[in-house]
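INTERNAL AUDIT FORM
Audit reference: QA-55
Scope: verify that the stored structure record matches its stored sequence.
Auditor: D.O.
Record contents follow.
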Amino acid sequence: MSHSKSVAFHTLGCKLNFSETSTLSRQLEQEGFEKKAFTDKADVYVINTCSVTENADKECRQLVRRIQRLAPESFVVITGCYAQLKPKEIAEIPGVDLVLGAAEKFNLMEHLTTLIKGQETKICSCDIETVSGFNSSFSVNDRTRTFLKVQDGCDYSCSFCTIPMARGKSRSDSIENVVKQAQELANNGVKEIVLTGINLGDFGKGDHGGKKHNENFFELIKALDAETQIPRYRISSIEPNLLTNEIIDWVATSKSFMPHFHIPLQSGSDLVLKLMQRRYASDLYAERIERIKKVMPHACIGVDVIVGSPGETEAYFKESFDFIHALDISYLHVFTYSERAMTKALDIKPVVPISVRNERNKILRNLSYQKQQYFNAQHIGTNRPVLFESVKQKDANDFPMLEGYTDNYIRITTPFRNEWSNSIVNWDIH
C-alpha cells in the first residue's frame, strides 16, 4: 500500500460526518497523500456512511459500483454508521477492501499501510458498547464556515433510530479543548463555527486523560463566547428537552451566538411522540418556540419532522400538521420514515404505506416553503449582518456571484465583489 499516494472521499449523511471526513482527509494529506475529487481516478476511495435512511445504504452500494467501473484496481474503504451496524453486509459488496467501525475510523492510515489488493475484505469493527473515546474533528471547505464536532454518541433510545447502535454512548470533548480548537480556527481566518454532535445538548460527558469532567453545554457556549475571537457561532441541532430557558435567554444577549435554532420535533402528535420514545410532549416544544420568539422575535427556527412512522394514522398526521402549522417557525427538514433493522419501531402497528408516507412528505414540504417565505417576508426592509462565503458561485448566466447568510439564516446572493468575500456586511433586505 506504500505506493498509493492519492485519495478521494465521499460523505453521506450529517454535518458530523462531514467534519469527520474533513479530519480524515487532513490526516492522510499530512502522510503525503494527494487529495482528489471523488469523480477522478485515485489510489484509495473512502466512503463515510450514514445509516439513518435506507437511501444512504443504497447510495453506498451505488458509489462502490461506480468506483469499480472507474478504477477497479483502487482500494475501497467504507467507514461510518453503516459500517458499524452492518460490517459483514458491506464486506460482501464486490470491490470493498476494508470496513472500519466506530472505534477504528480514525486509525485509517494505520490500516492502509497493511492493506493488500485482492485479499479477503478486512473488517475492523467492535462491540459498540466498548467505544468510549472521543475524537475531535472539524470541516474546512473554505475559510468562512467550519463544522466543529464537540460531542458524539447518544444515550437516548428513540424507537426509530439506529444511531446509538452505530455511534455508541454519549461522550464529548472538554471545554478547554473546544475553546483551544475554536481559537486556532479563528487565527486561521474562520468567521463562523457550527457546533455539531449527535446529541449536542448532552455535551459534558467524557473522560480525558483518565479524568472525568463535569461540564455542560451552557458552560461550553459561555466559554466560547467569552474566550474566542470567532465572530459567529451556530448551534447545529439541539433536543427541545435540553434547550433550557437559560440557554435561550443567554443566546438573546450573546455577542457571537446567532439567533438561529434547529430543534427536532419529529411529530406534533403526543401519541406518536410516545411511540417514538421521545423525551418531551408537544406542549414543552411549543413553550420553547414561544420563549425564543419572545426574547428574539427575529430568530430563525428550523424543525426536523418524520412522516409516516409506524402508528401515525391519518388523524395523528393531521394533528401533527395542525400543530406545526400553528408554530412560529421558519422552515422544516422533512424525513420520510424508513424501516431500520434492530429498531423497536418495527414492532409498532399500523405500518403506513410508502405512497402515504410520500404524500405526507409533500404536504409538509409545501408547509415548509410557506413558512420560509413568510419568515423572509417579515424581514424585508430591515438591515442585518451577512457573512458572505469565500468562494464564488455562478448564476444561470455563468456570472460570478457571492452567497451568504444573515445572522438569522436568510440566504442572500449578490454579484461577486472580492472585498466582501469571507466578510460580514450590513445588508438591507429587499
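Auditor finding: record pair retrieved intact. The CA atoms of residues 404 and 412 lie 5 Å apart.
Action required: none
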